[in-house]
Amino acid sequence: MILDQKSALLTVKKVLTADFACKAGAFDEAGVSICQVKNAAVARRFPRPGKFLAVVSMGQGAVICCSRDRLRWAKNNLSQYSRDGLFSAAAVTCMQDYVAPDNQVMVGPYSKYICTQDTFRPYAIKKGIILIEGEEILRLYPNSQFPNALGHYPNVQRPTVIACVARDNKKIIGAAGASVDCEVMWQLGIDVLPDYRYQGIGRALVSRLTAAVLQKGILPYYTTTVSNIASRRIATSLGYQPTWVEMYSADKPAV
Fold first, then answer.
1. What stretches of 20-120 show up as alpha helix (H) in DSSP?
2. Per-residue confidence (pLDDT) for residue 207, from 0 to 100
3. What are the counts of helices (DSSP H) followed by strands (DSSP E) for the chain?
4. What is the pTM of this model?
5. Is the pLDDT of residue 39 over 70?
6. Among 7, 13, 44, 202, which residue's Cβ finds the most Cβ atoms within 10 Å?
7. What fold does the segment set 129-239 form as a domain?
8. 149-153 long-range contacts, Cβ below 8 Å, gap at least 24?
9. Hey, where are the domains in the chain?
10. Is the pLDDT confidence value at 255 over 80?
11. d(CA 158, CA 222)
């Protein structure tokens, strides 16, 4: 069971070390390290394109992880950047220009937050928040209103195993879901319908879901773009702590 911030950080480092195929301790070192991706070693169950490029940092140095055919380019074009420089407009543009001929885009950077029992600050509202688990979640699909919380359809690879919904009478006005990204870390997603935002509903949904995940001894983590200030405020208000930043290449969706 995740009890405190120290043990949670160790968990995150183990997961990221597996995901980005870097040496143990790489996230505690200053400077930039470059390594080759090893899909068989990933901890989080995200699909990756055959050609891959990612940058991740936990606040010390930064790790660049890429497919074998991109190693030389990364060493020649990215190794001169500092940790902060890798997330600058110049570096992101450089990476975007490089992956574009492969019909890819650079996604992110995303801010990642974790919450533990010793930092969690619960929040509740008078409107009922309903917790849903197991097969009952399937009744929420197909879903087009809450893509960040639930996805459009059930995800077999990273299933949503716990969800919370907020209702206005019988209408679902907000939802939050926890997906099993790996055995020790579940990711929380949140959506609230536009007419019901800024009323504390999103904060209450994430709070209830965070409590449920922590009770299972799993580390909840929360993702938002760096520009989504409202989402970042929800996370920090509940005691989520900024823990790492990542961006990566992804194939453009088929038209």
1. 71-77, 83-86, 89-99
2. 97
3. 7, 10
4. 0.93
5. no
6. 202
7. Aminopeptidase (3.40.630)
8. 149/175, 149/176, 149/177, 149/189, 149/190, 149/191, 150/175, 150/177, 150/189, 150/191, 151/177, 151/179
9. 5-113, 129-239
10. no
11. 15
